[in-house]
């Protein structure tokens, strides 16, 4: 390793160390306690030496986790609240099947755990939820109207709100999530319209968070502070808090540093023949046709069974099948492949390990339940194997390309994925959650394309990224019943 690479490696390690330090120091002056009650994993967060403080239940959305809501939890805990977050059934670390009444039952478990904490004033409680969780917290605050003094519904779904219930309802939506803005406006109208009378519990407010969509709203300080200000006004709290949740920024820097490390330690490992113009044409033709075949495969599969509930993971299995069908189509059209080498297989495993650590280790404490429970760990290799053909085809197509052409392939693959899954949503509306994932595809493809440029060997690239992608699917989506 030359001096330039060594210096790059040292600087990247320094960024990683600083990022971890900044993320973990968030918990300084806070008490953070893990609890399991009736099989529900919970996390309790409160300021040290807190006494008789309001309590807040915070609920995540579909395919979310308690980690995803920590921005609100830390903001509120630092401002003088006791906070309880948890994983709904079949989500994240909770392996219990999701049933008809699971959401309310889980919320009740969290409520009982919250009011048992010695720091909590059980006469001053509030709820906050995102998407699916917003419906759960609004329903709980309607059914127990005198239990909760305020409710914050972020990217709200539906609930039977009235001018009297729930008490002090704040609605939030990102400016880029039009469907949820429409939901929020309908809820606001049903709740009696804007009202600042929080003293009598009639407060109503709609907050639009600029330049935010369904996921990024959870990391926006404007959303965190709007929720905090609403609860402060409800409970008459005037404690000064300057906390701003920068953890996601440090997470991104941490991930980029790991990718830099990969670049420093992984010079070009293999050289292969240059694809001819005809073969490049076949590669582009395969990418163009593959989404149609893959979408048709899901349509046929749905006629044979419930595609969104297939294979142990809700929606996630359908996503892996789409990638697999698209990849096989792409490979057939390109019709060229070399056998893997033992060295290539080993490098693929190393790539997976680097991506696993770089993407997931800090995600576990920032936004994602990255550690897989037993059943998810069993599903992971299946999801990786099913989606593997896409990564093999992508690696073949991008071999020996310079930056300009790789950028073009990044655009092409991003467009194919987004367009292909929009077609899936048109054919199979029951997979509607995929719509919320579309903005993530260009980011993932950028990471995949970067690793392809470093390795320039498609078997290593395919093995490493397919394992990583399979782990992501197993970690993210809810378990099927």
UniProtKB/TrEMBL annotation:
Ranges for domain Serine aminopeptidase S33: 56-186
Gene Ontology MF annotations: hydrolase activity
Membrane spanning residue stretches: 248-269, 281-301, 313-333, 345-367, 379-396, 408-427, 433-451, 458-480
Keywords: Hydrolase, Membrane, Transmembrane, Transmembrane helix
Recorded coiled-coil stretches: none
Presence of the UniProt keyword Hydrolase in the record: yes
Keyword Transcription recorded: no
PANTHER family in the record: DIENELACTONE HYDROLASE DOMAIN-CONTAINING PROTEIN-RELATED (PTHR22946)
Protein's name according to its UniProt entry: Alpha/beta hydrolase
Species, as recorded: Nostoc flagelliforme FACHB-838
């Amino acid at each position: 390793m030359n001096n330039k690479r060594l210096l790059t490696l040292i600087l990247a390690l320094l960024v990683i160390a600083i990022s971890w330090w900044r993320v973990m120091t968030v918990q300084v002056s806070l008490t953070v306690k893990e609890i399991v009650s009736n099989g529900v994993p919970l996390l309790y967060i409160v300021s040290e030496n807190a006494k008789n403080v309001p309590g807040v239940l915070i609920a995540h959305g579909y395919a979310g986790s308690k980690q995803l809501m920590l921005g609100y939890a830390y903001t509120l805990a630092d401002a003088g609240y006791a906070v309880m977050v948890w994983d709904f059934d079949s989500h994240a670390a909770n392996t219990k099947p999701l049933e008809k009444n699971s959401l309310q039952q889980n919320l009740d478990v969290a409520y009982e755990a919250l009011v048992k904490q010695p720091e909590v004033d059980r006469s001053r409680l509030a709820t906050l939820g995102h998407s699916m969780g917003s419906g759960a917290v609004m329903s709980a605050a309607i059914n127990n109207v005198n239990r909760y003094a305020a409710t914050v519904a972020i990217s709200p779904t539906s609930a039977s709100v009235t001018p009297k219930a729930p008490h002090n309802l704040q609605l939030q939506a990102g400016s880029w999530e039009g469907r949820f803005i429409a939901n929020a406006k309908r809820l606001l109208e049903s709740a009696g319209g804007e009202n600042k009378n929080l003293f009598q519990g009639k407060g109503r407010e709609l907050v639009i968070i600029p330049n935010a969509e369904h996921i990024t709203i959870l990391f926006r300080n404007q959303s965190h502070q709007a929720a905090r200000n609403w609860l402060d006004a409800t409970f008459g709290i005037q404690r000064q808090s300057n906390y701003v949740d920068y953890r996601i920024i440090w997470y991104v820097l941490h991930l980029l540093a790991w990718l830099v490390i990969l670049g420093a330690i992984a010079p070009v490992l293999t050289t292969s023949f240059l694809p001819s113009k005809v073969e490049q044409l076949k590669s582009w033709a395969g990418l163009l046709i593959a989404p149609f075949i893959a979408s048709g495969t899901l349509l046929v599969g749905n006629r044979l069974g419930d595609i969104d509930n297939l294979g142990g993971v809700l929606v996630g299995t359908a996503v892996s099948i789409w990638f697999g069908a698209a990849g096989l189509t792409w490979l057939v059209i390109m019709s060229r492949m070399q056998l893997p080498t033992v060295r290539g297989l080993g490098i693929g495993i190393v790539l997976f390990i680097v991506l696993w650590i770089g993407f997931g280790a800090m995600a576990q404490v920032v936004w994602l339940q990255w550690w897989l429970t037993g059943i998810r760990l069993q599903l992971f290799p299946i999801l990786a194997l099913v989606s593997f053909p896409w990564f093999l085809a992508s690696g073949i197509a991008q071999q020996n390309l310079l930056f300009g052409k790789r950028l073009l392939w990044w655009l092409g693959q991003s467009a194919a994925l987004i367009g292909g899954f929009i077609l899936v949503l048109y054919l199979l509306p029951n997979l509607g959650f995929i719509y919320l994932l579309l903005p993530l595809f260009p980011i993932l493809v950028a990471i995949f394309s970067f690793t392809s440029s470093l390795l320039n060997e498609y078997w290593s690239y395919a093995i490493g990224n397919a394992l990583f992608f399979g782990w992501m699917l197993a970690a993210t989506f809810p378990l099927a019943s």
